[in-house]
Specification:
By secondary structure, the protein is an alpha/beta fold. The chain folds into two domains: 231 residues, 3-Layer(aba) Sandwich (Carbamate kinase); 151 residues, VC0802-like, CATH 3.30.2130. Helix content is 42%, strand content 20%. It is built from 15 helices and 16 strands. The strands form three sheets. Strands 3-4-2-1-7-9-10-8 form an eight-stranded mixed β-sheet, with helices on both faces. It has a six-stranded antiparallel β-sheet with strand order 12-13-11-14-16-15. The chain has a two-stranded antiparallel ribbon with strand order 5-6. β1, α1 and β2 form a beta-alpha-beta unit. α1 packs across α3, α4 runs antiparallel to α6 and α7 packs across α8. The chain is globular, with a radius of gyration of 24 Å. Bound molecules: adenosine-5'-diphosphate, aspartic acid and magnesium ion. Aspartic acid (ASP) binds next to α8.
């Protein structure tokens, strides 16, 4: 079988974990699988890199210096543990120092300019994967595999939407096949940096935070893999985030559509864009746990076996705000909704959920909390005249909002789901601010206050017996 295996941050979080991954991959290789490895940076590294660059732009000349030292120590420690060959250690330690010198130089320039462009942010943010992959490849070689480190800038061609780049699949396919297939045919294991791509001109881009999952399926699509395995720190896709709902269970099989919906509604276990390259070619995705590699995890496929549950999982998107435009005079004034959303769109703010009461006295919508200020001032400006005329009474926002989503195919056609949800929350005295059904067939979304979110997730999880 030809398999792309993606390893996440905690799975490569220290020297021992890296040795564990090396043995795991080699074990599968000896069973005759052709494997491409895609790895994320060690957990926390990308955060540190990005935070340093942001602080540098704000005038802080210390954070990146401290980060440089701690990242050096961290990667040296990993090298010490995961690589035994003395001469390779020397080469790799030289490489680590060069990459981290590049990091410090970039941050110094950002500090001098006082500005951080998305393009510069990608140059800095991509260093975590570039630091780790050569070490992982060497650990694999020392465990018996013919591994070869490869920068995904040589494989994944993207547009220039820095920090959120999209792959250009024809070019990616061509490059990936040209480079990866001969290695696989010779029995080798390419070890690729996740998260990163490059424009046609060769400028480094990233696919969005958490994007190495996406690298996994992009490569899987490009080389026509039989399966893509996403190795993480939990036993697959679960009925809820186990950190919040301790009795969450693994979902053995789930459809592409449901998995995509879950990830769009906050299930961090898969990056939201991960599903589409696999679904396009009907490639099954498996979510597996490096801490418990014999657990079967979750299979994400086109037509899963049903498990009898209409609702399958509960997720949450946090850090949101609810904006309300209200006024008794709004009733019957044409075009208010159009103007509200045109105004928000002009600000480049995306709207996650909308509701309008039938009396037309208000329009509410949900956006990310960090866009609330901007939305309010743009709307104040847009509706200045209407306020003077008394058509609009006020534009205001409620912060600390969470969308809780219940996901499962076929929920829309099943009566009583909403009643059940309200019952479960009512019993626990949890207040629902708003509800929406029909953003797709797959989910029912509730708007709740941040304080009620975890309780709501647990109450619904219990009520639906997930
Ligand atoms: P990785 O570093 O391997 O990419 P992430 O931290 O990005 O791992 O994603 C795994 C985490 O996703 C889990 O540790 C878990 O807390 C969280 N998570 C959120 N929702 C779910 C869910 N429905 N099922 C499983 N894990 C979830
Ligand atoms: N290292 C990257 C990040 O932290 C990509 C990933 O983890 O998938 O966003
Ligand atoms: Mg992740």
């Amino acid at each position: 079988m030809r398999v792309v295996m993606k390893f996440g941050g905690t799975s490569v979080g220290n020297g021992d974990r890296i040795l564990n991954v090396a043995r795991l991959v080699y074990g599968y290789a000896t069973q005759g699988h052709a494997i491409v490895v895609a790895s994320s940076a060690m957990s926390g590294v990308t955060d540190t890199l990005i935070k340093s660059a942001r602080r540098a732009a704000e005038g802080d000349a210390n954070t990146f210096v401290t980060a440089h030292d701690s990242l050096t120590q961290q990667h040296f420690a990993v090298l010490e543990r995961a690589v035994s060959d003395e001469s390779m250690r020397a080469i790799l330690s030289q490489q680590i120092q060069e990459r981290l010198a590049e990091f410090a130089n970039l941050c110094r320039s950002i500090h001098i300019l006082g500005e951080l462009t998305p393009r510069a942010l990608d140059m800095v943010g991509s260093l975590g994967e570039r630091l780790l992959v050569p070490i992982l490849a060497q650990a694999l070689r020392e465990n018996g595999a013919q591994a070869q480190a490869i920068e995904s800038t040589e494989l994944v061609v993207t547009d220039d939407n820095f920090t959120q780049a999209s792959p250009l699949m024809d070019a990616t396919r061509q490059k990936s096949r040209a480079l990866l297939m001969p290695i696989l045919q010779a029995g080798g294991i390419p070890v690729v940096t996740g998260f990163i791509g490059a424009t046609r001109q060769g400028i480094i881009t990233t696919l969005g935070r958490g994007g190495s999952d996406y690298t996994g399926t992009i490569l899987g699509n490009a080389i026509d893999a039989d399966e893509v395995w996403i190795w993480t720190d939990v036993n697959g896709v679960m009925t809820a985030d186990p950190r919040i709902v301790p009795n969450a269970q693994t979902i053995p099989e789930i459809s592409y559509g449901e998995a995509a919906e879950l990830s769009y509604f906050g299930a961090k276990v898969i990056h939201p864009k991960t599903i589409s390259p696999a679904a396009e070619r009907d490639i099954p995705i498996r979510i597996l746990n490096t801490f418990e590699p014999t657990h079967p995890g979750t299979r994400i496929v086109r037509a899963p076996k049903t498990n009898g549950h209409t609702a399958k999982a509960i997720t949450a998107i946090r850090g949101l705000g609810l904006v309300t435009v209200e006024g008794r005079g709004m009733q019957g004034v044409p075009g208010v909704a159009g103007r509200v959303f045109a105004t928000v769109a002009r600000e480049g703010i995306s709207v996650l959920m909308i509701s309008q009461s039938s009396s037309e006295q208000n329009i509410c919508f949900i956006i990310e909390a960090n866009a609330v200020e901007r939305a309010l001032s743009a709307l104040d400006h847009e509706f200045e005249l209407d306020r003077m005329r008394g058509n609009i009474d006020r534009v205001w926002a409620q912060e600390h909002i969470v969308i809780v989503a219940i996901v499962g195919a076929g929920m829309k056609g099943t009566p009583g789901i909403a009643a059940n949800v309200f019952g479960a929350l009512g019993d626990k005295n949890l207040n629902v601010i708003s509800i929406a059904q029909g953003s797709s067939e797959f989910n029912l979304s509730l708007v709740v206050d941040e304080h009620d979110a975890n309780g709501a997730m647990r109450a619904i999880h219990d009520r639906f017996n997930l």
